[in-house]
Amino acid sequence: MTSHSSFPLADSGRSRRRLLLIQAAAEAEEERTRKLARAAQRAADNEREEQAIEDLAGFQNEEAVGRAVPELIGGEPSPEVDPDGSANDTIDGDSNTPLLRAFDPGDDEPDEKDVLETIGELISGPRPATWVFCGDGPVETTFPDRFAAELRTTYRRPLDVVVNTLVPGSPIKMVLEHLEWQLGRFHPDVVNLIIGSTTASTGPGFAATLTTLVDRLQELGAAVVLHAPDPDGSDELQVQVDEIRELAGGRAIPLVDHAGADGDQERVDRLCKALKLQRPGS
Questions:
Q1: How far apart are CA 165 and CA 87, in angstroms?
Q2: Is the Cβ–Cβ distance between 246 and 208 less than 8 Å?
Q3: pLDDT digit string, tens, across residues 159-204
Q4: Taking residues 229-245, what's their average pLDDT?
Q5: Intra-chain end-to-end CA distance of the chain, in Å
């Protein structure tokens, strides 16, 4: 009877181990390939997303790119004064290199500058703006949404943000009490303060409350726009509408009169007219 040697068994064990090692190496290589593929896909997705954002920003900027250059250099160069008292408009004596100033959107506070001019620069400039609607508005109103659509389409501002914090039936005192939550956290460029018929319930302190609220809004660095309600035959509300008009006139604040407005689109048209918004290319 032929005896069996232990060597073939040993060879067989080594073969199995070798096979397992090969399989493990193949699986590791396959996993590495999958990781590389996923990384490449993420990079491609990020590149496409960045390109989309760049294209969108370019779309908004295309009408204003010529006007953006003076803003970026801060308008006319500020001359430097040499020790001998002479003005120097150049850098390091280079007559061909103008002195540039950094552009800061917050250089001019709205109360130190005409509000319409401030808003006009926002509309014509490349920087996206934040518009906040606050105060009293009808339950079913689409006023802020329609204005946002107007910004995107008519004025080619797809990156502007419109925030609607209108609370139907709320007096302006509520806005003043919750200013940070309703407005401050959004860092608004423009605040549309909608004053509705609910103001009639605030009593004789309305004018003082409105003045305080406007002061606080301007302290936020926002351009303020007032919206007066339709008195609709109410003597008390008519008194408050007159107070709104007086404050707007005395502080050079744009006023949108909603008396007799027929729907939200007409309110949007009145707002654009009050702000003297210019269509691109006009």
A1: 50
A2: no
A3: 999 999 999 888 888 999 999 999 999 999 999 999 988 765 556 7
A4: 89
A5: 109
Residue 242, amino acid: D
Tokens of 142: 């689409």
Length of the chain as a residue count: 282
Residue 12 CA to residue 27 CA, distance in Å, equals 22
What's this model's pTM, rounded to 2 decimal places? 0.61
- For the stretch 85-105, pLDDT in tens is 444 444 344 444 433 333 344
Bridge pairing between strands 161-164 and 190-194: unpaired
Give the DSSP letter string of the chain.
-PPPPSHHHHHHHHHHHHHHHHHHHHHHHHHHHHHHHHHHHHHHHHHHHHHHHHHHHHHHHTTTHHHHHHHHTTSSPPPEE-TTS-EE-EETTEEEEEPP----TTSS-GGGS-HHHHHHHHHHSSS--EEEEEE---TT--HHHHHHHHHHHTS--TT-EEEE---TT--HHHHHHTHHHHTGGG--SEEEEE--GGGGGGGGGHHHHHHHHHHHHHHTTPEEEEEEPP-TT-HHHHHHHHHHHHHHHHHT--EEE-TT--SHHHHHHHHHHHTTPPPTT-
Classify the C-alpha dihedral 213-214-219-222 as positive or negative.
positive
Residue type, 21: L
pLDDT digits (tens, 9 = 90+) for 8-42: 555 677 778 888 888 888 888 888 888 888 877 88
38 Cα distance to chain centroid: 34
